[in-house]
Amino acid sequence: MSEESQLIKVRLEKLNKLWELGINPYPNDFKPKDRAKYLKERFQDVSAEELERMNIEVSVAGRLMTRREMGKLIFAHIQDSTDKIQIMVAKSEVAGETFDFFRKLVDLGDVIGVTGGLIKTKTGELTVLAKDLRLLTKSIRPLPEKYHGLKDVELRYRRRYLDLMMNPEVRELFRKRTRIIQFIREYFISEGFLEVETPMMHPIAGGAAAKPFITYHNALDMNLYLRIAPELYLKRLIVGGFERVFELNRNFRNEGVSSRHNPEFTMLEFYEAYATFEDLIKRTEELFYQLALEINGSPKVIYQGQEIDFTPPFKRIDFLNSLVEIGGVPSEILRDRAKLLSFAKERGIELNEKDPRIGKWWTKLFEELVEPKLIQPTFVVGFPVEVSPLARRNDQNPEIADRFEFYVASQEVANAFSELNDPLDQRARFEEQLRLREVDEEIPPEIDEDFLLALEHGMPPCAGEGIGIDRVVMIFTNSSSIREVLLFPHLRRKEEL
User: Fold this and answer.
1) Domains of the chain (ranges, CATH numbers)
2) Structure pTM?
3) Which runs of E-coded beta strand occur in 253-365?
4) H/E element holding 434?
C-alpha cells in the first residue's frame, strides 16, 4: 500500500470514529464573523498588552494548513479566502475533550471553525486563543507535499483547487485577473457603451477565420457552431440602433493548445458607431495606459524580464514595411511568388502553395519573422484587404484595409478595423472567400445571408475591436503561459500523455 493510500485509510477510520461518536463531520451551521486578512490589518500593530485590555472575541473558519504540538499547547494555522492566521489550542482554555479531539481526530486539510480571544504570542504573532473549536469538513485526502508535489505543472493545472489551496501567489494572480476584467468593463460602461450578450451557438460559423467546434441540436434537427467570434451579431446591434456596444465573453476555436492558445478563451469585442480605426487606436492607448496605472500603479510593466511601457503614444508600423525592415524580406521579392516561396523555405517557413492570396503568405511571414520582435506596444497598420474580409477599404489605397493589429511582448493582443458597411462589397468578399475554401479550411462553409440582410438595411459607419483578455492578463501578471491565467485550462487526457 502506498503512503498516500495508507494516509487515506487512516482518515477514513477517523471519519467512521466521528460518526460513531455522534459527531457530524460535515455540519453547516457555523458562521465565521471575521476574516484573517482584516484581523491582521486592524490588529497587527496593536501591542499584546493593549490586545489583552481590549478583550476581543473573534470567530474564524478555514483550512488547517500547519500544526505543531508543544505538550498542552497546540499551535496551528488556518487559511481562509483572505489569508492565514495562527490559532492556539491550550488544554487549560478549552474543554478536555475538545483538546483531545483536535489532537487525535483533526488532520491537516480539514476545515475547522474557531471561536476565541485575540492575543499576541511571545514572538509577536497575532493569534486566536481558542475557546471553542469545531470540525466543519473532514478531508479524506492529505494535502500535497508543499515543496515537491506542487512543482508538478500538470498537477497544478489538473487540480487547480490544490494549486489555489497551497500557493497564495496563484490566488493573488486570479484576483488580479478579476480586477483587470472589472476595470475593462467599468471603462467601457463609463464611456457610454452598452454591455450585451449574443449567442454562443451559431447556425453559421463566421466573424473570424478559424475552425469551429460543431454540436447538434436535437429539437431543431440542425448543426450549431460554438462561436468563434461575436462580431456579426454585434454588428447587427449597430444596425438596430445601439451605437456603442461591447461583450466580454468566451470564444471557441478548434485549434491546438500552446502557451498562447486555448480552445476556449475570453474576448472583449466592442463596436462604436461614427468612429474609425484611428479613433480606436486612441481608445486602445487610453485603455491600456489607464489599466496599467490601475493594476500596477505605473505605465511600466515588467513582463518576462522586459520592461513594457504603456505610455502613449504607442509605436506604429506599416505591415509591408515591417516585413522588409524587421523581417528581412527583400522588398523586390514581395510580389514574386516563386522567390517569396524560396525565401520562406530557406527559413523553414511553410507557405500554403495552393492559396492564391499573396497577402496570406505575407501574413504567415509576418507571424514568423516580425511578430517575435514586437516587444513594446505597437500598432501594425496597412493589412491587405484579401486577408481582411470584414474591414473597410482604405480610401487612398483600396488594396489595403483600414485596420490595425496591436502587439505587446511578441504577441497579438488586439485586432481592429473600420467596419465594412457596403453590403454589395461584403457579399462579393464572402463569395470570393467561399471559392477559396478548398485551400483554406478555416473559411466559413456558407455565407451568412441574415447578416448581409442586416447590412442591406444600412449599418452606420463604425469601427470595432477585439481584445484577447487572457493575453492581457498574461502581460499584467508576468505569466509566460496562457495556462497560468486560466483557472481550468484544457489538457490532454492523462492516459494520452
Assistant:
1) 3-143 (2.40.50.140), 166-314+376-496 (3.30.930.10)
2) 0.93
3) 264-273, 300-303, 306-309, 315-318
4) helix 423-435
- pLDDT above 70 covers what percent of the chain? 98
Q: Alpha-carbon distance 129 to 132, whole Å?
A: 9
Cell of 249: 465573453
Whether a cis peptide bond, with omega within 30° of 0, leads into 313 is yes
Residue type for position 332: E
Query: Alpha-carbon dihedral of residues 440, 443, 445, 451, nearest 10 degrees?
Result: -160
- Residue 7 sits at φ, ψ, to 5 deg, of -65, -40
User: Rounded distance, CA 67 to CA 401, Å?
Assistant: 64
In the numeric block, the cell 452598452 is attached to 194
In which element (H, E) is residue 65 found? strand 57-70
Residues 230 and 218: their CA atoms lie apart, in Å, by 24
Q: Where are the alpha helices (DSSP H) in 74-195?
A: 96-105, 153-158, 160-166, 168-190
Angle between helices 168-190 and 469-476 (to 10 degrees): 120
Task: State pLDDT tens for residues 424-466.
Answer: 999 999 999 999 988 988 888 889 999 999 999 999 999 999 9
- Per DSSP, the three-state class of 473 is helix
Section 23-31 average pLDDT: 97
Model pLDDT for residues 39-67, shown as the tens digit of each residue: 999 999 999 999 999 999 999 999 999 99
